[in-house]
Specification:
By secondary structure, the chain is an alpha/beta fold. It contains 14 helices and eleven strands. Bound molecules: pyridoxal-5'-phosphate. Pyridoxal-5'-phosphate binds next to helix 6.
Length: 456
């Protein structure tokens, strides 16, 4: 039987897998940054099974050539990190170890997860009052944080939402200037409704909320609870809300301050940019992604709150067979969970504070370098100043159709992948730098590709 055979020849299988992985990683420098998916013949469920080696061969022949170079240096779409060597090694071991970190008591794995959260807290210079949890990404982290905020709001009204539901709670306003789409998605998942999100005016030319507009809205609530969602790294431009001002307002009016720092929290790693996060300590909840600037493989994110008791009220799980420990499953939507912290532990231990300072500083310098190149090109216009690691720009005079055609041509060219957006009503595009391996030479390649595709 194939399964027994594969088990007996596991070493050979893992060697073949390692060779495939190495070949893929070595191809990143030349592989097209993005690939347009093709329609391929369906796979038929084999009656007897192919065995792992043949399945691997089929995978490599049929699908691997069409994978994008998304972990590579010039995939600048969305906000896409790669994997550091240590993170990759850790991730492989996650599968080999296959520990369930939902419950304590029979493995040291949960201790490693707690240690990793402490390392992250140190990386971001967060006080010890913040307790964390690993989830699959920033969307899920926002969900966990907002669920905790909802529990807090209920408690202020004398209602335990985790027990009684939302039936007796008046609609809870969520206020922010440029919330990420995942916040709105989380509000839908939480039963609070997408319409609970009130997008307030931003400062002129900025994506940062106008603190005066927020003051007026909070004052009008007359002490009723509200959640303020701050952006520490807005996805189109990398802009930051004034966390210090927002924290002061939340304190004054009794609101919950949530900070979405999916990538921007890593500004804490760069002494020249850490000031962007001034006031962060006073937040009630903070989130960031692992699969962005930490450069661990998908999928990893984390959430920190100063309200562990409320957090655990929401995610508490009880059953006789589960026991009654202080397990990590009381902090996350999942009960059983992979050992997601291990790649983060490996990369933090391998490269430390200095390693991450270098990655963050370099990415920000590369964003500035690209912006300068674009400014001296006749084809492009910069739409916002580079505040961190994101360059938001437009193809001069292009409407949305022409912008899309340009991005398709660029994908076809293969040297760089960018993704579209709209900014201040203009069809725009963004380049987001969070990959540890992007270098100065990539910027010349990218500028050449952009100019060539713009010339047509
Ligand atoms: C500010 C911000 N928040 C949340 C997210 C959602 O992240 P994920 O797709 O990892 O869930 C992103 C993704 O780019 C982001 O930039």
């Amino acid at each position: 039987m194939n399964l027994q055979y594969d088990h007996q020849h596991l070493g050979a299988l893992l060697e073949a897998t390692q060779a495939a992985a190495l070949e893929f990683l070595e191809s990143l420098a030349t592989r097209p940054a993005g690939r347009t998916p093709q329609t391929l013949p369906h796979d038929l469920l084999p009656e007897e099974g192919l065995g792992a080696q043949r399945a691997l061969s089929v995978l490599r022949a049929k699908y691997e050539p069409l994978l994008s170079a998304s972990p590579g240096p010039r995939y600048l779409g969305f906000v896409t990190g790669g994997s550091t060597p240590a993170a990759l090694a850790g991730d492989w071991l996650v599968s080999a170890y296959d520990q369930n970190v939902g419950s304590d008591g029979d493995s040291i794995a949960t201790t490693v997860e707690r240690e990793t959260l402490r390392l992250l807290r140190a990386l971001f210079s967060l006080p010890e009052s913040f307790e964390g949890a690993f989830v699959s990404g920033a969307t899920q982290a926002n969900f966990v944080a907002l669920a905790t905020a909802r529990q807090w709001a209920g408690a202020r009204l004398g209602i335990d939402v985790s027990e009684q539901g939302l039936w007796k709670v008046a609609p809870l306003p969520v206020l922010g200037g440029s919330p990420h789409a995942s916040i709105v998605k989380a509000l839908s998942m939480l039963g609070m409704g997408r319409q609970a999100m009130e997008v307030l005016p931003c400062l002129p030319g900025r994506m940062a909320v106008d603190p005066e507009a927020l003051t007026r809205r909070l004052a009008a609530l007359n002490g009723a609870p509200a959640i303020v969602v701050a952006s520490a790294g807005e996805v189109n431009t990398g802009d930051f809300d004034d966390l210090e001002a927002l924290a002061g307002l939340c304190q004054k009016y009794g609101a919950w301050l949530h900070v979405d720092g999916a990538f921007g929290l890593f500004a804490a790693c760069d002494p020249a940019r850490a000031h962007l996060l001034r006031g962060l300590d006073a937040a009630d909840s903070i989130i960031a992604d692992g699969h962005k600037w930490l450069n661990v493989p998908y999928d990893a994110g984390f959430v920190f709150t100063r309200h562990l008791a409320l957090h655990q009220q929401v995610f508490k799980v009880s059953a006789a067979y589960l026991g009654d420990g202080a397990d990590l499953s009381h902090r996350t939507p999942e009960d059983s969970r992979r050992f997601r912290a291990l790649p983060a532990w490996m990369t933090l231990m391998a490269y430390g504070r200095t390693g991450y300072r270098e990655v963050v500083t370099r990415c920000c310098a590369l964003a500035e370098m690209l912006a300068q190149g674009l400014e001296s090109s006749a084809y492009f216009e910069l739409l916002a100043p580079v505040r961190l690691n994101i360059v938001c720009f437009a193809l001069r005079g292009a409407d949305a159709v022409q912008r899309n055609q340009f991005l398709e041509a660029l994908k076809e060219d293969g040297r760089v992948l960018l993704t579209p957006t709209f900014f201040a009503g203009k069809p725009a595009m963004r380049a987001a730098f969070v990959n540890w391996s992007t270098s100065d030479q990539d910027i010349s390649l990218i500028l050449n590709a952009l100019d060539q595709c713009a010339r047509g």
